[in-house]
Write a structure and sequence with these properties.
With 304 residues, the chain is α/β, with parallel strands linked by helices. The protein is built from eleven helices and 18 strands.
Length: 304
């Protein structure tokens, strides 16, 4: 299968700790890297995971709180020092340009590459990026300031060639891509060989939803139905449900309820408050509702 990999650089909440950096991830789809949020320490986390800076295609910011963006300007400056020349597109909600354009103009004025900022509407779900491998859509979240999550959907791959059938019918190499795309084959005597005999089905399409920060938002489940994997914030345990509501965050139980309603394949919980010396309590609360839940960890690499 083609690569579809989640790399968690940091999964803590507002306060970085010795155990967790604040929020940042890399989604690797077919060797193209997409960054989600960019907290302090992101550059070092990239190096620890041996992720190639030059393969970064775009950055997607959920919102403009410091624990999600304080690493951005430093990383952009580093890209300039490393001689990046490929344009870099950065997506984020309202005020993205107001906050970052002056910093880019000041700190990255001599950068050898172009930085393009895209403000998106955090109140609607829409496709904001597309290439031959993936479509990326925004997901409206409910937080203290404009905030959105992101949904990655892999595009279907071609069907798999059956080499034994290709050899048996002496099909020329020039026709293999057509057959992968679904065409039948007609032999010299006029016999039509169906595509189903010549190929096997393509790999299942995978998807990933990244949802942080948000108050419990049941409507979100409608937008992420059936995704392969969901990362959802679980800042607090259930004993702090009122605090979660007042700060526009979620409990582990609420994250699991979203996963259950959306019938996702796997749930990763993260964005942990530093008040908890261990996240096992959060994991247990989530697994009681949605058993296929795992804890996010800094430097975790997950292949879908």
């Amino acid at each position: 299968m083609e690569k579809f990999e989640i790399n968690i650089l940091g999964c803590g909440a507002a306060l970085p700790t010795p155990h967790h950096l604040s929020s940042s991830q890399i989604v690797n789809i077919r060797q193209k890297l997409f960054m989600l949020d960019c907290a302090e320490g992101t550059q070092m986390a990239l190096r620890r995971l041996h992720l190639n800076f030059s393969h970064l295609q775009a950055i997607f910011l959920t919102h403009l709180h410091g624990d999600h963006v304080f690493g951005l300007i430093g990383m952009l400056s580093t890209f300039g020092l490393l001689g990046r020349i490929q344009d870099l597109h950065i997506y984020g909600p309202q005020d993205l340009k107001k906050v970052f354009q002056p910093q880019i103009d000041y700190f990255c004025a001599d950068a050898p590459y172009k930085i393009i900022l895209h403000e998106i509407d955090s109140h609607i779900s829409e496709t904001i990026y597309e290439d031959r491998s993936v479509t990326i859509s925004s997901l409206p979240l409910v937080h203290r300031i404009p905030c959105c999550g992101y949904l990655f959907r892999e595009k279907p791959t071609p069907r798999h060639i059956r080499r034994d059938m290709i050899d048996f019918y002496h099909i020329p190499i020039s026709q293999i891509n057509n057959i992968k795309a679904g065409m039948d084959w007609t032999t010299p005597d006029g016999t039509v060989i169906s595509n189903e005999r010549l190929t096997t089905p393509s790999d299942p399409v995978r998807s990933y939803a990244y949802c942080t920060d948000t108050v419990y938002h049941p409507k979100l489940s409608e937008l992420i139905q059936g995704v392969s994997c969901l990362y959802h914030e679980a800042t607090f345990a259930s004993e702090h449900t009122l605090l979660a509501k007042n700060t526009y965050h979620c409990t582990a139980q609420q994250a699991a309820q979203i996963a259950l309603a959306a019938q996702v394949g796997k749930l990763i919980i993260g964005h942990f408050s530093s008040r908890y010396p261990s996240e096992n309590t959060l994991l247990q609360e989530a697994q009681q509702i949605f058993p296929n839940t795992i804890l996010a960890e800094d430097n975790l690499k997950l292949t879908l």
